[in-house]
Design brief:
Layout (H helix, E strand, L loop, with lengths): L13 H56 L5 H14 L4 H43 L2 H15 L6 H8 L3 H20 L2
Helix pairs in contact: 1-3, 1-6, 2-3, 3-4, 3-6, 4-6, 5-6
């Protein structure tokens, strides 16, 4: 048995329709503004990733040079250094041990962090190089070469030198480096 249910109809006045439209308009504006704020935050995060990537790439040569200059201590050398600290500062042996221990641990921790950072940079830039080669685009390959000259090669190139080598304008080099760092940021820092 089918029963016909009647749907009640409501009659709205023009004033009620205007009120509904005003409320809907306010809600739409609030939703739009919330989306704008969300988009601005996302853009800021992306810009921060590129800045952080450029900073990491800029410190790459310094970290490599520092690590190649300093030799890693063996466990025996670490013990010997600790005892030297103790012998030099016999007056307050416990304090000297804890301070010397912290100095050695901090130095080794910093060294390990630098090694890991170098590894991450090399891995990310290698992945970017492979991506550029697979793309077959001469523009992508140029961007990698520019990135390499600016940050990775033993000799540091200026933007003007890079523009002369690649036969492009300084503005193009800056633009290319921004694009390349944006892509490397994904490999280096994630999405």
């Amino acid at each position: 048995m089918a029963t016909d249910k009647k749907i009640p109809l409501y009659v709205l006045t023009q004033e009620q329709i205007n009120q509904i439209a005003a409320v809907a308009g306010k809600e739409a504006v609030q939703a739009f503004r919330a989306e704008q704020v969300k988009a601005e935050k996302k853009k800021a995060r992306e810009e921060n990733k590129v800045k952080k990537t450029k900073k990491m790439l800029s410190s790459y040569r310094r970290m490599k040079a520092t690590l190649s200059d300093e030799a890693e201590f063996t466990e025996e050398e670490k013990v010997e250094l600790r005892w030297k600290f103790i012998q030099d500062l016999m007056g307050s042996a416990r304090e000297a041990v804890s301070k010397s221990e912290r100095v050695i641990q901090d130095g080794e921790k910093r060294r390990q962090e630098d090694l890991y950072c170098i590894y991450r940079i090399e891995k990310a830039t290698e992945m970017y190089r492979e991506e550029c080669e697979r793309s077959g685009s001469e523009e992508a390959k140029r961007r990698y070469r520019e990135l390499s000259m600016m940050y990775l090669e033993d000799r540091e190139y200026s933007v003007q030198e890079i523009s002369q080598v690649e036969k492009v304008s300084d503005k193009t080099v800056y633009k290319d480096l921004g694009i390349a760092c944006g892509i490397v940021a994904i490999y280096l820092l994630g999405i």
